[in-house]
Description:
Blueprint: H1 7-14, E1 19-23, H2 30-38, E2 42-48, H3 51-61, E3 68-72, H4 78-85, E4 90-96, H5 101-104, H6 130-136, H7 139-150, H8 155-166, H9 174-184, H10 195-205, H11 208-222, E5 223-233, H12 236-251, E6 255-257, H13 267-272, E7 280-286
Parallel strand pairs: 1-2, 1-4, 2-3, 4-5
Antiparallel strand pairs: 5-7, 6-7
This protein binds S-adenosylmethionine.
S-adenosylmethionine is lined by residues 2, 4, 25, 27-31, 47-50, 53, 74-76, 96, 98-100, 122, 211.
Amino acid sequence: MHKPVLLEETSKILITGGGVYVDCTLGGGGHAREILKSREDIFLIGIDADETALEIAEENLREFEGRYSLYKANFKDIDAVLSMEGISEVKGILFDLGISMYQLKSGRGFSFEDESFLDMRIDKEQKLTAFTIINEYSEKKIAEILKKYGEEKYAQKIASEIVKRRKRKPIETAKELADLISSVYPKGGKIHPATKTFMALRIYVNSELENLEIGLDKGVMYLQRSGRIVVITFHSLEDRIVKHFIREKEKEGIIKNLTKKPIKPKLEEVKENPSARSAKLRAGEKLV
Ligand SMILES: C[S@@+](CC[C@H](N)C(=O)[O-])C[C@H]1O[C@@H](n2cnc3c(N)ncnc32)[C@H](O)[C@@H]1O
C-alpha cells in the first residue's frame, strides 16, 4: 500500500469548510479518503492519469459512494474536468506529486532492480517511453535531458556509454540501464548512481514540470475566495516551480502564501515511511 505523505498536515491546511475539493493526484485515494472523512458536506473530484490508480482509489473510497467523481485525466486539463462536472469554483485543490509506491513496483521500469521494459509512462496511452529516449535519441539530447531534469553531474559520461552500448543491442530494461550507469559512475556515493538519471527520464517522459506549471495556473483560477491550494513536492525542480508560483501570485495579490517555509514530514513519519523524506508542502489561500 502507498502511505499518504503529510496526511494530517495536508488536511489541517486544505480543509476550511464544506464544498468541492479537487484531488489532482488521486493515486490510491489516501488523501482523498481523509478529505471525505473530515466532513460530510464535502464533494471530491479525483483526477489521475493512471487508470490503475483509479481502480485502486475506487476500492478505497467505496464507503463514500455518491460523494465523489473520479476522472482518468491529466491534471493539466483540470479545466476540462471541472467543466464536465459543471463546476465553476472549488474550495480546495491538492497536488501530491510524483508516483505512488504501487507504481514504483508496477513493472513499468521505474525502479533500479526492475527487469521489466524501460517504460516509465504514468499514462499508458501516451506514446513516448524511456526506451525510445535511451535507444533512439542522440547522445547530445540524452546528456541534455539528464543535466536539465536530473541535475546529473556525469550526464555526458552516462550518455556516451548509453550510445556505445546500444550499438551492440538495445537497452531494454530498467535494470540494464541502472547497471550500465553504475559501471561508469564514481564509487562511494550515498545514493544509487542511477537515481538522478531515472528521475530525469521520468520527468521528461511524463512532461512533469510543464504539466505542473499548467495545472497550478489553471487550478488557482478555479479556487473560490478563501479557498486553499496545497502542493506536496518530492524534488527541488518541482519545489522551485511551486515556490515561484506562490510568490508570483502573492505579488499579484491573488494568493496569500501560507507557508513561508515549506512544511516537511516529522522524524517519526520519515522513520515509518522513508519515501516521505524529501517531501515539502507549500500552500496558498485565494484572496480574490
Ligand atoms: C504520490 S501519488 C498520490 C498518492 C495519493 N495522494 C494517495 O494518498 O494515495 C501521485 C499520483 O499522481 C498521478 N499523477 C502524476 N502526474 C499526473 C498528472 N500530470 N495528471 C494526473 N495524475 C498524475 C500518478 O499517477 C500518481 O497516482
